[in-house]
Amino acid sequence: MHDESRQSVATKNHAVVIAGGGPTGLMLAAELALARVDVAIVERRKSQALESTRAGGLHARTIEVLDQRGVADRFLSQGKVMQVAGFAMIRPLEISDFPIRHNYGLALTQNHIERILAEWVEELGVPFYRGREVTSFTQDENGVDVELSDGSSLRSKYLVGCDGGRSLIRKKAGIDFPGWEPSISYLIAECSMTEEPAAGVRHGEKGINAMGKMEDGTRVRLVLIEQDIKLGDKPTVAELRDALVAVYGTDFGVHDVMYLSRFTDAARQAASYRDRRVLLAGDAAHVHGPMGGQGLNLGVQDAVNLGWKLAQVVRGTAPQTLLDTYQTERHPIGARVLKITMAQAALMRGDDRTKALHEKMSELLKMDEPRKQYAAMMSALDIHYDFGEGHPLLGRAMPDLDLATESGPRRVFSLLHDARPALLNLGAPGALDIAPWADRVRRVDARYTGGWALPVLGAVPAPIAVLIRPDGHVAWVGDGTDKGLREALTTWFGPPQ
Ligand SMILES: Cc1cc2nc3c(=O)[nH]c(=O)nc-3n(C[C@H](O)[C@H](O)[C@H](O)COP(=O)(O)OP(=O)(O)OC[C@H]3O[C@@H](n4cnc5c(N)ncnc54)[C@H](O)[C@@H]3O)c2cc1C
């Protein structure tokens, strides 16, 4: 393990420093390391272990982005593949009929997800400064001085705040965090009980309480609505007992409380994801309720959008303005997730009128088209960045097709394993000349005889060539000519050499 903790307190240089080694910071570090950028993580926790299990799994698009890097199997082998998409507990919203390889989600808790990500990041040789915090930073025209809690400092070209919802980086950068105050607070606990727990879901006036046995079959994990909205993440065991009595009429003899915290449905989003050389990703950029299991997935996908752009800017092959597209592409997606979670929280209230609305919504989501639209939205399979008019693939995620190449069969995702862009030419071999970008863009001549289809949209016309960004989104579609190809290459991968 590359733990820099015991090294001298002299200033060290890195091209990029990431504050926070949760799921977002780990994914971003992997992306930058694959692009051969000198990146380091500063993480407050001494080890990757989490106090609780937190998030419950991965949605299909997150599995796809991990597959694009060749590491999806590490996660799939340790979790349970299943239909996980739901909306306001209306589930499952099946994606098994979607024309994609991973037409499912994965039940795997965040402690395991983080462990696997951290192992991968260590294999990639990323240094960790563990057991210390970023306490401050100052930026100038050329870089950022980052102060750590042990008195040492780092110098980097860019600093990325992946330091969670209470992000110090966001606050010190003076980035506004507007949004909605909480309308409800929940206690979350992992504990033991002398009485048999009331496993399952119990509806209350304000929403849903849930209780169930943990993996070991004895301990209990529960989420409980508090009667009044409370803030602060350090509730007391007395508050837990009171909340249990208020909902169930008994505290079930709760004891040995191993984990106790609080969360709310507050929804906030950073007004900007960037202030010059400081960027935000994951919970540092957006917070919202956990309904629909979006947060971790959103953060990992932010990282995959930002990583290759930042790598090119750091290397000087693309201008800083490329980083503006991180904001234009990801800010609307974050804003959408805030609305998705707020709508779910409202729909889960237990009064008769809301229950009637929930019932009607359930009927709607049993219909095929609404089910497909909502399943794709909750799984992030419908993301369409606006690259202008054109073929339906433009701006959407490239499907993982089975190709025939000169060197044998290949999957499209395997072309992206090293986080480099690829020009996939399905027309006459050698037809497209991208010599001035040959050091940056892989050109692959291949044959594909199957159909083309996308989630929700269904069948789309077969293109002759596609330019695929490292995050898997299609940046250009060819119709047999190279019209627009040079412009697309310049926009995304910098001017010709
Ligand atoms: C009860 C619950 C259930 C959830 N369920 C789901 C789910 O099913 N699906 C889903 O997708 N999401 C879920 N989430 C949300 C998910 O846990 C978060 O969105 C996710 O952890 C965000 O990842 P992150 O890396 O952006 O931030 P974090 O996980 O918060 O990581 C931030 C890291 O930064 C470190 N740090 C903080 N400040 C500093 C500093 N100054 N210097 C150095 N290090 C610092 C922290 O120690 C931490 O490791 C759930 C959350 C909760 C509370």
Identify the notable features of this structure and list them briefly:
Alpha-Beta Plaits, alpha+beta, single chain, 11 helices, 3 domains, Glutaredoxin, eight-stranded mixed beta sheet, FAD/NAD(P)-binding domain, six-stranded mixed beta sheet, 25% strand, binds flavin-adenine dinucleotide, 497 residues
Largest sheet: 8 strands, mixed
State the CATH superfamily name of the largest domain: FAD/NAD(P)-binding domain
Q: Oligomeric state of the chains?
A: single chain
Number of structural units classed as domains: 3
What is the CA–CA distance across the termini?
38 Å
What ligand species are in this complex? flavin-adenine dinucleotide
**Annotation, overall tally of beta strands:** 27
Task: Report strand %.
Answer: 15-25%
Looking at the overall shape, the CATH architecture of the largest domain is 3-Layer(bba) Sandwich
Reported by name, the CATH topology of the largest domain is FAD/NAD(P)-binding domain
Characterization of this structure:
The protein has helices at 23-34, 60-67, 72-76, 110-123, 168-172, 237-248, 295-315, 324-347, 352-366, 368-378, 485-493, and strands at 12-19, 39-43, 57-58, 80-82, 105-107, 128-130, 134-139, 144-148, 153-161, 179-180, 185-193, 200-203, 208-213, 220-225, 254-264, 267-269, 274-275, 278-280, 286-287, 402-405, 408-411, 422-425, 442-447, 453-454, 458-459, 465-468, 474-478. 27% of the residues lie in helices and 25% in strands. With 497 residues, it is of the alpha+beta class. It folds into three domains: 12-56 and 109-178 and 268-348, 3-Layer(bba) Sandwich (FAD/NAD(P)-binding domain); 185-264, 2-Layer Sandwich (Alpha-Beta Plaits), CATH 3.30.70.2450; 402-493, Glutaredoxin. The site of flavin-adenine dinucleotide (FAD) has 33 residues, from helix 1, strand 2 and helix 7. Residues 19-25, 42-45, 54-57, 110, 133-134, 162-164, 168, 188, 263, 282-283, 290, 293-297, 299 line the site of flavin-adenine dinucleotide.
